[in-house]
Write a structure and sequence with these properties.
Layout lengths: L5 E12 L2 E13 L4 E5 L6 H9 L6 E6 L2 E2 L7 E4 L11 H11 L4 H14 L15 H14 L4 E5 L7 H18 L2 E5 L3 H7 L2 E5 L6 E6 L15 H18 L13 H8 L6
Parallel strand pairs: 3-8, 3-9, 6-7, 7-8
Antiparallel strand pairs: 1-2, 1-4, 4-5, 9-10
The structure holds adenosine-5'-diphosphate and magnesium ion.
The site of magnesium ion has 3 residues, from helix 1.
């Protein structure tokens, strides 16, 4: 089996906030198997993005350890591809140029880059849009470019933080199916964060439910949908309703503790560079 496993071992994360401190994560232990697609749901502000930032190496745990393929995470690296909710494309580059970005960071020779990047644009259904700039693309297309970019440098692990949350329902459904197709073709380990219960059940082999802040793993639910490979939409199967209800039940008490509205942050180009592990470019 390809891909790398991910392990959180009693991980906590504390932020200093003004004069005090915020405990975002408190003793998170979680194993994601090599090649698994795990979804994570939890109330707003419970530390989902923090979990992903830790894996991406953008921030360090205050306690505990997290490992990928048995090695502790030490900063960003090209073994991980990250897709954020905001498209995080470089506006001055074409779709093709954006996909080439990670290939440059990886040192792929110029002559090979364009061809490789074209292949990945094709994989996400964007052949014919290589020369378009981000402002000439729809939201769904921009997110496809972001996915193509994260796949292009062939990371072992894909980290996705609510990547479809800003899209219309139809585009979201299409991209969910595309992700499942790509995942089954590439065998990558995927950690997919969402606040959508249906999305979590539809995509995940397992769904990890987090508590309200400080985030802890409340429950990990195995999802076994019999209609995955059939022509019938698994969402209309009775089993789907069963799992949806289980996740909802686990979340219900946590969500009722919620106060503040969801924090949505833009991802500036600098953060993208940090993720790719390069200091500057262009
Ligand atoms: P989620 O993605 O589940 O909505 P986050 O991981 O973004 O939650 O945030 C978890 C908690 O940590 C929130 O209370 C948030 O305000 C706080 N937090 C996140 N990043 C920082 C930071 N850099 N500095 C201070 N507090 C932070
Ligand atoms: Mg978040």
């Amino acid at each position: 089996m390809s891909g790398s496993g991910i392990r959180f071992d009693n991980v906590s994360k504390r932020f200093s906030a003004g004069s005090g401190e915020v405990l975002a994560l408190d003793g998170v232990s979680l194993d994601i198997r090599p090649g698994e697609l795990m979804t994570v749901v939890g109330p707003s502000g419970c530390g989902k993005s923090t979990l992903l930032d830790l894996l991406a190496g953008l921030t360090e745990p205050s306690g505990g350890e997290l490992t990928i393929n048995g090695s502790p995470v030490r900063g960003p690296g090209l073994d991980r591809g990250v897709v954020f909710q905001q498209y995080a494309l470089l506006p001055w580059r074409t779709a093709l140029g954006n996909v080439e970005f990670g290939l440059e960071a990886k040192g792929v020779p110029r002559r090979d880059r364009a061809e490789l990047a074209r292949g990945y644009l094709e994989l996400v259904g964007l052949d014919g849009f290589a020369k378009r700039y981000p402002h000439e693309l729809s939201g769904g297309m921009k997110q496809r470019v972001a996915i193509a970019r994260s796949l292009a440098f062939d990371p072992e692990v894909l980290l996705m933080d609510e990547p479809f949350a800003a899209l219309d329902p139809q585009t979201r459904d299409t991209l969910q199916d595309e992700l499942l197709r790509i995942w089954s073709r590439t065998g990558k380990t995927v950690l997919f964060i969402t606040h959508g219960i249906e999305e979590a059940v539809y995509l995940g082999q397992r769904v990890a439910v987090l508590t309200a802040r400080p985030g802890r793993v409340k429950e990990v639910i195995d999802v076994d949908l019999p209609h995955r490979d059939a022509r019938e939409d698994p969402r209309s199967a009775p089993e789907f309703g069963h799992y949806r209800h289980r996740v909802w039940s686990a979340l219900r008490d946590e969500v009722s503790q919620l106060g503040a509205s969801e924090r949505r942050t833009e991802v500036p180009a600098q953060r993208l560079r940090e993720v790719a592990g390069v200091g500057h470019h262009d």
